[in-house]
């Protein structure tokens, strides 16, 4: 380096001598609708939406766990080898789409998506969503179902002094209506904490965790008591988004208790749903 270059370098660095240097912190841009959601197999990742979630669809359901709770979706990878896949969430009259991937490090966090309505990653429903947008009509249908005679006595599940059975099954438009009778034959009241509905499709010869396709859905409307007192029987009514299953499909219904370990599950075969009676004309809805 010649003397002139040394002189210029000294003049440039002299004002910085003895002063702490400051560096700008660069962070990943925050977007209201991320392209990829990172999850792990050790921690739960939470998605929060502006309205109640009605359906969660994972492209590779054998690689991830998903659960609906009100306006939230809980996600977790089954293993570190889970591959990336598509995620679709329906809330109200909107759909949210993203990619799911396993993070290399800790990724348990909350994705607050309450401001995404009409934004990136969200599409609005067309005419197919009109039924779901009319809660008054759906609730009126549930009220009418309570007056109809019970048409089904099976399937049922009896366990721990409790019995859950299907008592009504109807279809109107794009909505599936269910009546479930829960009888508490014990001395302890039964308080449901979680009621889950999952459409299952078999991909091979047997139903297994890695050999099935599943859609978890949330009721559009419901008429159900908060608790089933001791020695009493009550019917719970639910309206679900309709999904046309193949002959291999099933609808899984799960009940879990808030303070206790009693749980019930029944499976409805696809043929029952695909051939369910429709509401006759003249109901005035």
Automatic annotation (TrEMBL):
Pfam families noted in UniProt: DUF4138
Protein name as it appears in the record: Conjugative transposon TraN protein
